[in-house]
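Inputs:
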Amino acid sequence: MQNAIEAGTLTAVVAGVTGYFVVLRKSAFTAHAFSEIGFAGAAWAVLSGISPLAGLLIGSNLGGLGIALLGRRAINRDTQIGIVLAFSLGLGLLFISLYSGYATQTYSILFGEILGVSQAQVLETMAAAAAILLVLGLVYRPLLFASLDEDVAEAKGMPMLALGMVFMVVVAVAVSFAVEVTGVLLVFSLMVTPGATAQYLARRPSTAIAASVIIALLATWTGLFLSFYTSPPVSFYITGEVFAFYLFVRFVYARFRGERLSQGSLLRPPVDRSG
Amino acid sequence: MAKLIAESATAQVKSDLIVAEDLSAGYGGRSVWSGANFSFGRGEFVAILGPNGAGKTTLFRVLLGLQHPTGGTIQLFGSPPRRGNPHIGYVPQRHTIDTETNVECLELVRLGVSGTRWGFNPVTHDDRDAAWSALEAAGASDLAHRRLGALSGGELQRIFLAEALVSNPDVLLLDEPLSNLDIKRETDLLHLVNNVVRSRGVTALLIAHNINPLLPHVNKVVYIANGKMTTGKPQEVLTSENLTRLYGIQVEVLKDPHGNVAIIGVEEHHGDIP
């Protein structure tokens, strides 16, 4: 249980930060696609007798870099991404059917197995989390600029292709580790929903990122706690909680605050000049 | 005396921020326009006109260093254009911003100056002051904490203008900032740009489809059509003979008593009701 809390905490922080950018760059579908390319990689890894995490990392990174190399408008290529996604799932299915061992590993890749996380996995997650946060810190402002205003950022000399590739690798690694907690199919619950919710809570990126992390953390902790005492799995609680909170913020909170403070930020009065 | 005149002529050339000689541009072997000569000085307000696809945005791409000229020379501040020149503020042609964008306007304006910095560096007081003064110059202080996705077309253009101004550029490139604006907002925005040009000594190049709202403000007009470019004062450029020569077909420039211009006889319409 202690391993689970540690791995869950690290994953939630990374997913919360990364997820904000995924939502801002409208890359949710892309992120989903390469988590499923990662699934094919993981199934292949299981078949070949190597660690599923290695397969996930290879698969999702190749997918992410491929999409980044397609160019700056590739994020909107829903059709192409969908076609590759479907093929990846098919490949994953083939690898599983070829594997004669237990199917539990496959099940845990699809739906997460946080309670089975080992001490070594916690250390791996910690190293990955540190690397991701460091990289995101270094590219923070240019990435924000490129995400909000591609054309001007390009004219200002920002290396758009390199930024896109760095971001895709960050998401690929973050997704691969988040899969341990939520599984391939439910990775959105930590990678997208908290970031999407946070955009309605704060208009300043730094504040919104903090909100995204807090949502992901609370959902992970309470999910672990609830599943420890009841029978539904952790992933179910996490997805359910973030979804319920998203609905509340989107339709109750944002509407209520939006009307009262339509002139200003949700967190600051309109004529505050400190910012 | 002759020497003095020669010297002052050299000084004149040196004070010009943008000088092009026999400049041509194109994509993949296809020429867009060629033989362009122009020079713009500090604090000049220049309108860029011409039909769709004539290469108005191409001119901006050349100035921004996003595209190499296919011939001739172009100098900005005495050197060839390069991508990421901090002396240029740029407002690209945009039709919308996603209504789901919940980031506040101030952040975008600030990124105009801090968005090119790598590494861990919190926003400085200077950045804040620069952002607020740019917002003020663009008449957009009241929009600072609004979310980008909630702005109207005119409000958005003011924010883009502030974003371009925040790095204190010497040259402003505005690509069709007036499209999608009604007459009132069009006039308001042009007054703002004009104030910036006069008060900050900025050279502004503005691509537009309708010259009339611009006539009270601009010093020069660049007219691009038929693969060629002609430059000069508005009254010099916008004449029947000149545009007929440029287009290669009969073109009539009509003027009403208020000084409004209508250009007739070409496939594209200018000076009409927007």
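Chain B has eight helices and eleven strands. Flag for discussion at group meeting.
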